[in-house]
Design a protein that fits this description.
single chain, about 190 residues, alpha/beta, Rossmann fold, 7 strands
């Protein structure tokens, strides 16, 4: 079974924030496939179903971003799933709004959520889909920027971006990572 984990922060104050893009993608997958997310036995919400014909577990950690690895390790242990069957979806401030970057493995690249997952799993060998949320304007604080909600004028682009990310996950499950990287790891006209 594939595990797709979207990273974010729990709590009403973070709903719709840039840092919660992983949650938005998982919610989009759940809605599109009729998968109901509910509290798990650990620090996460999850749901099981079929996505693009493949059995998958969708996961949203209920830990804060910098402790995401705890929840993901719990899910992998509970489901006896190897890290190479995991896809982590997260925000990336180094990509323009709407750009996607899928990798089969790699470093955290400064992302606290990915750092936590790598630390808990003791490996960098899991797939990750980075979703571009852009950078703050000069002089603005990075933390405030990622914890803030998208601006109203970005909403159409954000909706398109989430749809593209959902499509990337579906293609990954049906056709594999190489085909998905070829299709989605390119610059977009969004921004």
């Amino acid at each position: 079974m594939k595990v797709i984990a979207g990273l974010g922060n729990p709590g009403h104050e973070y709903v719709g924030s840039r840092h919660n893009v992983g949650f938005l993608v998982v919610a989009g997958l759940a809605d599109g496939c009729g998968i109901r997310l509910s509290a798990g036995r650990g620090d996460f919400m999850s749901g099981v179903g079929r996505i693009a014909g493949v059995a998958a577990r969708l996961v949203m950690p209920l830990t804060y971003m910098n402790r995401s690895g705890l929840a993901i390790a719990q899910v992998l242990e509970e489901t006896n799933t190897a890290p190479d069957e995991l896809l982590v979806v997260c925000d990336d401030v180094n990509l323009p709004l709407g750009q996607l970057r899928l990798r089969a493995a790699g470093s955290a690249g400064g992302h606290n959520g990915l750092s936590s997952v790598i630390e808990r799993l003791h490996t960098e060998s899991f797939a990750r889909l980075r979703v571009g949320v852009g950078r703050p304007p000069d002089g603005d604080d990075m933390v405030d920027f990622v914890l803030d909600v998208f601006r109203d004028e970005e909403r159409t682009d954000v909706d398109e971006m989430i749809g593209r990310a959902v499509g990337a996950v579906e293609l990954l499950l049906s056709d594999g990572i190489e085909a998905t990287m070829t299709m989605f790891n390119r610059k977009t006209d969004i921004a």
